[in-house]
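Study this chain:
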Amino acid sequence: MRGLALHWQILIGMILGTLLGISLNLAAGQRSVTVSEGLPDGIVEASIEDSASMSVIRYRDESGDETVRRIDPTGQIEGSVTSADRLQRRDPVAAALYREYGGTPAKRWGAWFKRIGGLFLRMLQMVAVPLIVTSLITGIMGLGGTAGVGRMFRSTLLYYLSTSFLAIVTGLFAVNLIRPGLGGPRRNVVDPDELDGGQSLGEILFGQLETMIPANPLGALVAPDFLSIIAFTIAFALFALSVGGQSAERIKNAATAGFDVMMAMTMFIIRLAPIGVLFLIAYVTATQGASVFRSLAWYVVAVALALAVHALVTLPVILWFVAKRNPAEYAKAMSPALLTAFSSASSNGTLPLTLSCVEKRAGVSNRTGSFVLPLGATVNMDGTALYEAVAVLFIAQLHHGQNLDLSQQIIVAVTALLASVGAAGIPHAGLVMMVVILQAVGLPIEMQGIILAVDRVLDMARTAVNVWSDSCGCAVVERLESTSEPVAEPAPA
C-alpha cells in the first residue's frame, strides 16, 4: 500500500479490520465453560455462558444455593449490569469468576486489538499538547494584533453556534419523523447506583468558566486539560503581542521552531494511521454482536440519518456558498482525519492529524487552522449535540409512549446546544452530558442505559461529524477573514 494515497491506505485498513473483526465474532463469538476446581472459597461449581450480546455467570455455594448474574450491554433485562466493571461493584465473586474463566476468544482478541490500536492513539496524544501550544502561539502572533484575534474569534464563534444549532434542529426533525421509541419496550431496567450523578447546566457552564482559568497552567499541560491549555495559550500569545519588541519576536521564533518540529513528528506518526485504524476497527467489530442492535434499529437509523443530512447536506452547502470551496475536494483532502476520527471516536486524539490535513492537504493557512481547530475540538460538537437531542427524545418516547411537546423539545434543543460545549473530545463523553438534558425535561437518568449497546458505533459516527464541522469551519473562517481584511491604500506617487 506504500504507493497509495494516505486516505486510500486508511480506508483499506478499515475494510480489513472490519472483515477481521466480523470473522472473529462469527467464528469465536460464543463460549460456554463449567468449572468445579480452583474456585474461590465456598464456591463448589461455576458456569459461564458468554457471547457478544449476553454473558451469564452462575455459581453454586456449599449450601447448594445458586446465584445467577448477567452482563447485558443493553441493560434491558431486569437485574442485569451493563459491563464487567459494574458487576464488580454488585458481586465481586461473579466478577472474579468472569475475569478468570469468562470472555470469548473474540473478546480476548478484541482486547489485544484495542491495546495495539491504542499505541497509535497514544502517539497522537503524545504530540497533541505541544502541537496545540506551538500552533496557537504561531497562529495568534501571525494575526498581527489583538484586533485580528478578536475578529477571527467572532467569526469562529458565529460559525460554531450556527452549525451546532442547525445540527440539533436536524436531529429533532429526524426523531419526530421516524419516532424510533414508539412501539418499543416501555422501560429498561438499570441499577441507578451504576450511573454517575448529574450536575445542573449552570454548574457545568460555570465549571467550564473555572476551567478556562487554570490555577496551575503547568498542571493543565500535564493533565492534559485542553480548555485550560487553549485559554492560557491564547492569553499568553495576546500579552506577548502587547509587549512587542524583541520579546515578542523571540517568542514567535521559538514557537515557530517548535511547531515545525512537532509537525515533522506528527507527519511521521500519521504514516502509521492505516495500521492503527485497522486494529481499532477490528476491536469494535470483534466485540460487538449483531443481536444487540435489533431492538435499537430505528434509533440507529434516526441518528445515522440526521448525522448524514448534517454532514452531507448542511455543512457542504455552507462550505460551497460561504467558503467558496468544492465540498467533494475538501472532503477528499480531509479524509485521513475523518477516517481516523471515525475509528478512534476521539476528536482530541485526532487533532494533530486534522491540523496536518487542513494545512498540508486543504491549503488553509496556519494562522487560521491553528486558531480554529484547537478551539473547535473543545467547544464545537455538532455531532454530539445532534446525537444528544435524538437520544433524549428517543428515551422520552420509550418512557411516555408519546413525543415530548414543543416547549420541552425547545428545552432539549437549548440544553443540548449549551451542554455540547462542555462535552470532552473523548469517546463516550456525550453520555455524561446527556444526564443534564434528561434532568432538564424530567426524564429518569437510568434510562440512558438502553442506548449503551450502540453508543460506541454511533460515537464513532458523531465524532467524524464533529471533526468534519471543525474542518469546514477553517475554510469558512479563512474566507470571512480574507473578505474582511482592509485593502491597503496605494502609496502616493
User: Anything to note?
Assistant: The mean pLDDT is 80. The first strand starts at residue 30 and ends at 35. The two ends are 59 Å apart (CA to CA).
